[in-house]
Known about the structure:
The protein is of the alpha/beta class.
Amino acid sequence: xSEHDLVIRNGTIIDGSGAERRTGDVAVSDGKIAQVGKVxxxxxxxxxxxxxxxxPGFVDIHTHYDGQxxxxxxxxxxxxxGVTTAVMGNCGVGFAPVKPHxxxxxxxxxxGIEDIPGTALHEGLPWTWESFEEYMDMLDSIPxxxxxxxxxxxxxxxxxxxxxxGVTNNLATSDDIHVMGDLxxxxxxxxxxxxxxxxxxxxxxxxxxxxxGVHAAFDEMVGIAEAVGSTGKGVLQxxxxxxxxxxxxxxxxxxxRRSGRPISISIGQTYIKPENWRRLLDAMTKVxxxxxxxxxxxxxxxxxxxxxxxxxxxxxxxxPAYQAIADLPLNERVARMQNPELRxxxxxxxxxxxxxxxxxxxxxxxxxxxxxxxxxxYEPDPSTAIAFKAKExxxxxxxxxxxxxxxxxxxxxLYMTIINYVDGNLDCVREQLMHEAAVxxxxxxxxxxxTVCDVSFPTTLMQxxxxxxxxxxxPVETVVHKQSRAxxxxxxxxxxxxxxxxxxxxxxxxxxDKLRLHVPTIVHDLPAGGKRFLQKVTGxxxxxxxxxxxxxxxxxxGATPGRLVRGEQFV
Length: 571
């Protein structure tokens, strides 16, 4: 008779606590870790992990699977990258609560802010709910490969409580705030993990409308936070431009102080205010010393947009000659673009479009755009930017980019760094990751499907920072702790993120020497034939959720042990 469901033997255990690695066995029974060390009992399944790392499954606290989770049981590509718990509903956008006549508005916000095709959302979303509680019940009825947790989004609350006033520049009345607070409170009590908001003017709907959270004043933000806090549960999350730093940071601090709830803020280095992230982290350090539980969500590499003939955008998509062929199948487009006459026409239109001094910024952008390559290089040398490669060849950057995108039958991608690459390296990312207030986040799994594929952030953290970076690497024990236990603690999921008896048996078995990211590829598997980037990884040999294997080297097993996580969890 087998004593355990699974025994992983002879692995190098990195337990997620930050402690040094050790060799041993891990036994799993009834979805939980039963024993760590020398396991004498046998398992129904025995797995030899000799020469491999055995570590907790990753907890990704910043995804946007709000739509995909309603139609897809496989939350790839997150499950390919060792993620065993995905937290969605970030940045104040989502699909509940919602009145039937407002569904289109929520789709427009998700489509514009998170680059998820509206056609896919229209066809895929079943819309069997109105309240957030009903939305969670629907999610709970669908098995998934990994666990998911939902947060209640500010845009939906504002629209539900205020109607059209909620998406225009209107201040909420005290009655409006009461309604939104009550809706958020009910959602938290039903199992929502937290409340989220976006206060950046960069977030706009597909119609160009600014995200509703931008219009919210102090009383509204603090009022909703206090309602969440009245439950004694839940976390707060937001993104902001911090245009008036003192005022905005003061409001964020009061949200946490008055609610008594943890709050996390997205942080990155921008070209416009390249030192603002340090100011924000310094301010966090101060309020944390005063007892405010505030965290920074940081990326594990530069946040960059992929440009190409298959992507949502490319450098020539506003040229009339390109627009005339933009809807052709890829192979036909490539054939047309190889014609010297069309090439000259598109390039001349591009040159004419950006000839004025006012467009100097656009021309300067070539110094931030790189050939992505295969395997992808996410810390390229600044001297290899398109601007300088073109100069070496004696041609314009536009010419070089045009010819490069035609490679690999039109599948070659350019990589434009947006955040965290002002200095032409990832030193700022390392500083952010190692800050006491920081946890990895911002992967945006399920979003930006045609422009970004940052869902592989956890693999970058392991591969690049733990092994491949030529200098200033981060100990693998720290990397694993940051992406598993630290992220789990940040959102109150205290039953996971550790390889220890009694904890949830979410486990990755990793062949660290073979760990490798592959170049992102486009597939058309969303509802209505919508496209998205997927990125595979080699070296994550086994991913277990509650002791059941769900993925191996970017191949799904078809198992669906994942469930909706309702609220805080404890061992």
